[in-house]
Design goal:
Number of strands: 0
Order of helices and strands: HH
Radius of gyration: 14 Å
Helix content: 55-70%
Number of helices: 2
Distance between the termini: 19 Å
Oligomer: single chain
Structural class: mainly alpha
Length: 68
């Protein structure tokens, strides 16, 4: 999985991970990112799908341009 985000957001996320991973029990950077994505997924499921999970889908997503 390849994703793009602004340098500012990436650097802020990395700094947060480094400062708090031992407090939050993150096993790795990937674990931190997965937990962050899952939190947003669950928020959107609550907001737009009555709290129900959306069906999993492994079809390709359209690519966007990298963020600055």
């Amino acid at each position: 999985m390849t994703t793009y985000m602004s340098n500012t957001t990436r650097d802020r996320a990395r700094a947060t991970y480094r400062a708090t991973s031992h407090l939050e029990g993150d096993k790795s950077w990937s674990d931190f990112v997965e937990r962050a994505v899952l939190a947003e997924v669950e928020r959107r499921e609550r907001s737009y799908n009555s709290g129900e999970r959306y069906e999993g889908d492994s079809s390709p997503l359209s690519a966007g341009r990298p963020l600055g």
